[in-house]
Specification:
Helix 6 crosses helix 7. This protein is mainly alpha-helical. The protein has one domain. It has a two-stranded antiparallel ribbon. It contains nine helices and two strands.
Length: 255
């Protein structure tokens, strides 16, 4: 019997590492892997309610709720788990033997972006038979990530503006004796919480970009003469968006 565990090993869901270990030993079938991938994905992405309150119990504003929801697209635990799950479920239809095991093994090791890029390309190879369609699908994925980043940036800007206004107001009331130190501390803690959300999204988005870059590089090497400039241009836009997100995260201060 195969038992699925959902602890993290070096930043990667252990369920995938377990599947790969059994696969290498020759104990796991394709169906086993697909089943574990599906179970793992539901654990990673399902069953959670949208956050509506801060840690201190205050209601989140619509912008804060939207920012948290949008940031989920860039949480490494989610996109990495989806990608590895997809790779585990499709690799055997694309690659056979030691090469497939090697790609899965790399994908299961925390921080092995090259392995994630390989699993990502393998999933596109499974979905699309022509090289052109595979490339178009990757370009579309990067473009979608750009759109998600731009939407997140808009929400982050709004949240930062709200935080500044809220803190200034409570500090002013405190100076007039109309607010307590606890209220000031809560406003500052709220800013810290929002900053953590922004920073986590920025980190996950940057690692996702690295994976995309690895996929573009591998695709170009595997298909000499193919024009990948459209994907490179989307990646350049993505990099500029991430630089903006990084600057916004760095601009948040509770001083």
């Amino acid at each position: 019997m195969i038992r699925a565990h959902f602890k993290r090993l070096n930043g990667v869901p252990t369920i995938i590492a377990l599947a790969t270990g059994l696969l290498t030993a020759g104990c796991v079938t394709t169906g086993d892997i697909q089943g574990m991938a599906t179970t793992g994905l539901s654990t990673l992405t399902g069953g959670t309610q949208p956050q509506t309150q801060t840690a201190a119990g205050a209601s989140l504003t619509p912008a804060e709720q939207r920012m948290r929801q949008q940031s989920k697209a860039f949480q490494k635990t989610v996109w990495e788990g989806v990608l590895i799950g997809a790779g585990a479920g499709t690799l055997w239809g694309v690659i056979q033997g030691d090469k497939a095991k090697d790609v899965l093994l790399k994908a299961a090791i925390g921080g092995a972006v090259g392995g994630l890029a390989g699993a990502y390309i393998a999933s596109k190879q499974k979905q699309f038979s022509s090289k052109e369609d595979q490339l178009d699908a990757m370009i579309a994925d990067v473009r979608r990530s750009n759109q998600e980043t731009e939407a997140l940036i808009a929400s982050v800007r709004q949240v930062i503006a709200e935080d500044k206004k809220r803190l200034a107001a409570v500090e002013q009331r405190y100076r007039k004796g109309q607010a307590s130190q606890t209220e000031v501390a809560d406003a500052r803690r709220r800013i810290t919480d929002n900053r953590a959300v922004i920073a986590q999204a920025s980190t996950g988005a940057r690692e996702k970009q690295t994976m995309f870059q690895g996929a573009e590089r591998q695709y170009r090497q595997d298909n000499p003469g193919t024009d990948t400039k459209p994907m490179q241009r989307e990646l350049e836009v993505y990099n500029r968006n991430l630089s903006t997100l990084d600057k916004l995260a760095g601009s948040v201060s509770v001083a």
